Amino acid sequence: MDPQFLRGLEELLQKLAFADDTNTIQTVTAALNxxxxxxxxxxxxxxxxxxxxxxxxxxxxxxVELRKRIPKFWEDIDAATQQQVRxxxxxxxxxxxxKLARHGMARVISSIAKSDIPNQKxxxxxxxxxxxxxxxxxxxxxxxxxxIDSLFETIAEALATQMxxxxxxxxxxxxxxxxxxxxxxxxxxxxKLADFIDPSxxxxxxxxxxxxxxxxxxxxKCLACGxxxxxxxxxxxxxxxxxxETPLLHRHFGEMIEFSINVGSNIExxxxxxxxxxxxxxxxTTYKRGRLQKLKIVKPLIEKVMPITAQDDPEDDDEDSPSRxxxxxxxxxxxxxxxxxxxxxxxxxxxxxxxxADPGFRKGAMLSxxxxxxxxxxxxxxxxxxxxxxxxxxxxxxDMLVRRASCMALGCIADELDEEVSEHHEKLMPLIFNxxxxxxxxxxxxxxxxxxxxxxxxxxxxxxxxxxxxxxxFALLGWGPPDVKPIALxxxxxxxxxxxxxxxxxxxxxxxxxxxxxxxxxxxxxxxxRGVATDTISTIAEAAGxxxxxxxxDDTMQLALQGMEIESATLRESAYCYFGVMSRVxxxxxxxxxxxxxxxxxxxxxxxxxxPFELDVGEDxxxxxxxxxxxxxxxxxxxxxxxxxxxxxxxIFASTTTAFLPYVEEISKELLELxxxxxxxxxxxxxxxLFTFIRTFNKIASxxxxxxxxxxxxxxxxxxxxxxxxxxxxxxxxxxxxxxKMVVTQxxxxxxxIMRDVGPAVTIDYAEEISKRLLEIxxxxxxxxxxxFEDEDEALDEDEMAELDSLLICAAADCVxxxxxxFGDAFEPIMDTFLPHIAGxxxxxxxxxxxxxxxxxxxxxxxNMGPGITKYAxxxxxxxxxxxxxxxxxxxxxxxYGVGAFIESATxxxxxxFSDVLKALYPLFRIDGNPNNVKDNAAGCVAxxxxxxxDAVPLADVLxxxxxALPIRGDHLEDIPxxxxxxxxxxxxxxxxxxxxxxxxxxxxxxxxxxxxxTGFVIVYQLCIQLCIVEPFQSALEPVLKQAMxxxxxxxxEESREFLAMLPGGN
Length: 1067
Known about the structure:
Elements: H1 3-17, H2 22-35, H3 42-52, H4 56-73, H5 79-95, H6 99-116, H7 124-133, H8 138-151, H9 156-160, H10 163-173, H11 180-194, H12 202-224, H13 228-242, H14 253-265, H15 271-287, H16 289-294, H17 298-305, H18 322-336, H19 339-354, H20 359-371, H21 377-380, H22 384-395, H23 400-416, H24 418-422, H25 425-435, H26 441-455, H27 466-479, H28 485-499, H29 504-518, H30 524-544, H31 546-564, H32 569-586, H33 594-605, E1 610-612, E2 632-634, H34 636-656, H35 661-674, H36 680-701, H37 718-737, H38 741-758, H39 767-778, H40 803-823, H41 828-840, H42 848-865, H43 873-884, H44 889-905, H45 914-925, H46 934-949, H47 955-964, H48 975-1006, H49 1015-1030, H50 1034-1046, H51 1054-1061
Antiparallel strand pairs: 1-2
Helix pairs in contact: 1-2, 1-3, 1-4, 3-4, 4-6, 5-6, 6-8, 7-8, 8-11, 10-11, 10-12, 11-12, 11-13, 12-13, 13-15, 14-15, 15-18, 17-19, 18-20, 19-20, 20-23, 22-23, 22-25, 23-26, 25-26, 26-28, 27-28, 28-30, 29-30, 30-31, 30-32, 31-32, 32-34, 33-34, 33-35, 34-36, 35-36, 36-37, 36-38, 38-40, ...
């Protein structure tokens, strides 16, 4: 080796190791690359520096540089030199005293092994490592296991072939009597070995499971001695094992949960250690919910987590703490498990905590209530009144933190159940309004946010609050704290949306203030306000209408476009929201702006979300030698912008139609690319936009209404057909592998809507594949339902589902029902496939929401299939009749609709069952109110019975009850059968009676008086009785008809409208 070359290399490495300025680093790095790292000569030279230099920093840096050059130059070195390096490095690593330099050498060994081992070279390496691991010297054991752990990063498959020997070795090392370093590194190596254990390898699974208690003991030791770094590394291993298909932790799962919750609850431990333990529970709940459910551990887990929520939080909202991670555990529990298993326990503790003298517990109660709302909306809906009462108590609390938490709880429940919460405005508004004037700016912020959540759905009742409300919001916008101003501005938009025309007196000043905010420049807070202003102005425009807003369109459009030129993702997202809403308001008038907007959308959709960055590491960090590849930073801000742009572009095309056509091809390509995006919300937005494109092409073509059936009975235009052929294969390919429930739920919803709007042409060529995907959902085998891997012998029969799972099943059911509508009689083969699965969800042991879904789906299919439903009478009718007698209104409502729809569609005479149906329907008319439209559907069912065979209906008994439920109040689709039945009764019974009278008189004229037959008079008498039954109820119908005819939501056929107009009350 050239001594001068070695000396020059060593001098530069010395400078680089201790450089403290960027210029020196860049200059020295350039010199090394140009003079020393050009050929294989650098390998032995770097190794010499790595083993012989007196300063450990230089030795470590030499190992880093050597590892980087091994892949490029190792094969260029002669065999003798290679062997010298191999032998010397094994000796050098044992002699190296500095940990970082030793670890650097281990990585060099790993890099050489990556090249050698596959080529059957360096066979002595593994034996050397086994000797090290069995040495009496703890330092040697540390070296041996560290190198083995490093080798898993380069030659893992080769190591996996020695799994049995490694198990034996690791079983000893994980229980090392002296060195915690050996134990922790062994845990890490076991985590890497776990990746190669197949679920079918029962012996390997059992061996690994046998080591888990020892792995947990290592973690316990780390926690006991406060070694945060080692504890974190152990938890990373366990977290990684949770997502493996192989059930390596199952045997000791209960103990691990108990251990982690005890650590998380232990206030004597360092907070970071507690956070790690609680995060393990988050991962466990996310990926092993089936195991938790099998262990029946959900309730005890909630009971132990909730006290942690009472502990103090840091002032920084972005900083983690045990209490915040405990809330995260509750959130994941609420979204992953059936609400019946979560909410009762949470509510019980909330009630208990609200009585506590400790404000921390009252704060924890309100935050717990807020955090579980997301996954329990339908379950909580009937309890909104009681929950609002609890929140009101919190809003009135003497403690500031409790009041703030109560505002957050109110905001969360109002986000999910806005209409239900708004009904309690008389309780809530005075409390919230007063809090917006609180002396504490934090309270003002959260109170204003809660106010914004309530306002949007208040409707006409907001008018009683308008003057005082607008005055207060304007004041907050003008002089409130910086983080309150955007919320106040948003609340002004919500007020305008809710109050409609009543907001007109405040329109001019609102526009003026918002325009000022749209022109702001400055720091991040200022731009955030500008972004909200851009959002809000579109809300104002939609509330005011295009005529009132037209004078402001050009000005606000220019401000939105100018905002997009500022380096701010927030402003770009806000502008896209503005464009989408404005296009909806102004439709064709908006087309003149497309030449400015479409290029921006394309630019956003084409943005690269990966950008290289340099790691900022200190000289003592092991990360410094882990730079083999340039790391990439995923910019989630760009993905958010793409999502918003996709949302907007669908609306823009739908609103501007033909004017947007020049941009469709390029934008469609980008939307198709977005289907494969890492962000679930971006994939969802792309799906919605692409289906909107299909719908808009169809709208442009103005086709005649589609007709059910296959093959197509109404042709579709070539452009719509081309868009279908472009979109459906791509969407179905995404669906096949999609692992996010909400994306699949949205996809099913969009598929249903596009079938409704465009007809069978959308799915006729893809029915088989779509049916396969839907069937997977009903069988709970879709990828988004199987993220929680379990052993086959541990499969659970879940009759209760989490609400997100329930939403998915319901969306799939709606999609199947729409299939029946567009395919008509051609749906029969699909029905044969789905019927047993859907009917299975209607069994009594299944949760109410799923039973209601199943009955509702079968009801819609009964309507949509028409006469083809007849063959399924024996399967369907018992399902409907059983559900009619259920205790839950939603189920009975769907069943009432189903019975009526089936009788209307089927070709069999069901008159014999009318009596049983009417008896089951009668209690529905006695229910207070109209929950789940139960009275509407019961009235619709009776109407269908009358239309089917009025003679089989005991009208004298039925009509008083039936008319008492009219007019239809919620489900106006039931208007059609109801008012058709009224017309049928008056029209047909009168006509029949008159015809019979004429027939009887004619017969009497032809027959002699003596012994004459009285058959005709009997018929006349019977029909007159029927007529007499109907006519007396005409007076009762008058107010019903008057109200119905005046209601713009009432749906009537033209024939029925004309006939009813002739009756008293109908005009």
